Amino acid sequence: MSEGEAMAPVGSQLSTAQVEGTSSSSNEDISPTQLRMNSLVQQLTDCEAAARKTDVPEEAVELISRVVDAASAILEYRASLPAAEAQTIMPDDKVRRCCQIVCDAANEVVVSHRVV
Predict the structure, then answer these.
(1) CA-to-CA distance for 107 and 33, rounded, in angstroms?
(2) What is the CA 68 to chain-centroid distance, rounded?
(3) pLDDT tens column, 1-31
(4) Are 74 and 44 in contact (CB under 8 A)?
(5) Which of 108, 105, 109, 112 lies closest to 46 in space, CA to CA?
């Protein structure tokens, strides 16, 4: 993010579609593996939103820990899949985006709450 640029609202920063590898419209078209990934991404989304909304520094630290845990669960799940399936479920660019989301959320909380 460049200097003077405002952070985008949480909803525009992270959505299931931004991190998922597929955008099927109905659950019956989605594999169980993709459904699991979608669930993990939703957990990350929820944790990040909560971390950005809190005004309590101690709570912000706890919530950022949950963001990191949620992102770790996504990465661990993807790593547990066969390479071809992992790439289909979540391509490398989406993995990098997931990691960037964690860094951005942590940085925003640290800066806004002066947490060290």
Answers:
(1) 31
(2) 9
(3) 333 333 333 333 445 445 644 444 555 678 9
(4) yes
(5) 105
What six digits make up the tokens of 100?
């960037």
* φ, ψ for residue 58, nearest 5 deg: -65, -40
Q: Where are the domains of the chain?
A: 31-113
Q: CA-to-CA distance for 74 and 58, rounded, in angstroms? A: 25
pLDDT on residue 52: 82
Structure tokens at 109: 């909380």
Q: How far apart are CA 16 and CA 13, in angstroms?
A: 10
Query: Alpha-carbon distance 58 to 7, whole Å?
Result: 22
Q: Which amino acid is at 30?
A: I
User: What's the one-letter identity of residue 94?
Assistant: K
Cβ atoms of residues 6 and 33 within 8 Å:
no
Residue with tokens 């579609």: 17
